[in-house]
Design goal:
Elements: H1 3-24, H2 44-51, H3 72-79, H4 102-112, H5 116-122, E1 133-139, E2 145-150, E3 162-167, E4 170-175, E5 180-186, E6 192-198
Antiparallel strand pairs: 1-2, 1-3, 3-4, 4-5, 5-6
Helix pairs in contact: 3-5
């Protein structure tokens, strides 16, 4: 390859990156303010401040805002949260925090819920209307053992300490002996998760004086 050909290829590559960069700086297909709270929302001020945050210019609120070549697909995968917002402003019945700032964004989207959209909607199947939950083998949880059972039909409260199977045709492994809580694979809701932590709910209180 001569130097002229190499320079032309480098030039084309640079132009391509520039176009992608310009695309990422363009307006969203749907403005973020379209996802603002209703006037009757008890946390109206908190959620209004969230939707008005400049961080949402770089991390989209919803998938439908992005164009095909928008570089913000990357930030959507890494730090976006279609369900709860990047500040956790829609997490549960109350917001994750009543403060809306960069620190809360880092705490919720980077430290607590990294790759939420990627795990749920890129490699996961959380958008599926119907989910398929097959447990190949589980131990405990109301019965000594089950083989090839539909986990969706288990009685409420069934919590085996060992479970291997497939959710939405993708594998998972759960192992929860004593105070250890380990999970690797896809959850029943279609999201991917890796978890290894102490299960504080199973830790028994020590007798007084021990």
């Amino acid at each position: 390859m001569n130097s002229g050909t190499a320079l032309r290829r480098v030039s084309r590559f640079s132009v391509g990156l520039s176009l992608l960069g310009l695309t990422s700086c363009s307006a969203y297909k749907v403005p973020t303010t379209a996802y603002g709270p209703r006037a009757s929302d008890p946390f109206y001020q908190v959620r209004l401040k969230a939707v008005q945050s400049s961080i949402y210019h770089y991390v989209p609120r919803k998938t439908e805002q992005l164009r095909a070549l928008d570089l913000r697909w990357l930030s959507w995968c890494v730090a976006g949260n279609d369900d709860d917002g990047i500040f956790g402003e829609y997490s549960g019945k109350t917001p994750y925090s009543t403060n809306i700032n960069f620190g809360v964004f880092c705490s919720w989207s980077i430290l607590r819920n990294p790759f939420h959209n990627f795990d749920c909607y890129v490699i996961g199947t959380a958008r599926w209307r119907n989910h398929y939950n097959l447990s190949v083998l589980d131990l405990g949880g109301g019965k000594p053992a089950r083989v090839f059972s539909n986990a969706a039909n288990w009685p409420k409260g069934a919590d085996p300490f060992f479970d291997f199977g497939f959710n939405d045709f993708k594998p998972y492994l759960k192992w929860n002996p004593w105070i250890v809580d380990f999970f690797l694979g896809w959850r029943k809701n279609g999201s991917f998760e890796i978890k290894l932590r102490p299960d504080l709910h199973k830790r028994r209180a020590r007798p007084t004086g021990s």
